[in-house]
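Posting for a labmate who doesn't have an account.
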Amino acid sequence: MSTRVHPGLLEAIRFNADGLVPAIAQQHGTGEVLMMAWMNRDAVVETLETGRVCYWSRSRGGPWRKGESSGQVQTLVELRLDCDGDTLLLLVDQKGVACHTGRRNCFYRAARDGELVTIAEVAIPPTELYGSGF
């Protein structure tokens, strides 16, 4: 992809007090919502410049290049900004599963009849994605 990021784009994004903005990843073409994660300014720039989605990991305190340990890479198709500038929508091409639990997406539980039920099973066991230390 390798494109220069126009400063006006970054200025339009309303990062929160921690310098983060929520980013929703959606499979391009199908509309399947895959996951939500956080991005900081550097992650947005890296994603736009490389075409490989990079998030900001709050737990690791650093950049998280989707698929760096699991091989389940997200490639950016298009980045969209909502009307308020405070949420990103990433249209992506997801290789394999998006969720660390080994499911296609992170939204595998649903409230049904007052209970939380699992609606999607594991496609790839986490130990296959991350090794026995998971």
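Reply:
Got it, the structure tokens are right above this. The beta strands are 20-27, 33-40, 54-57, 62-65, 74-81, 88-94, 109-112, 115-118.
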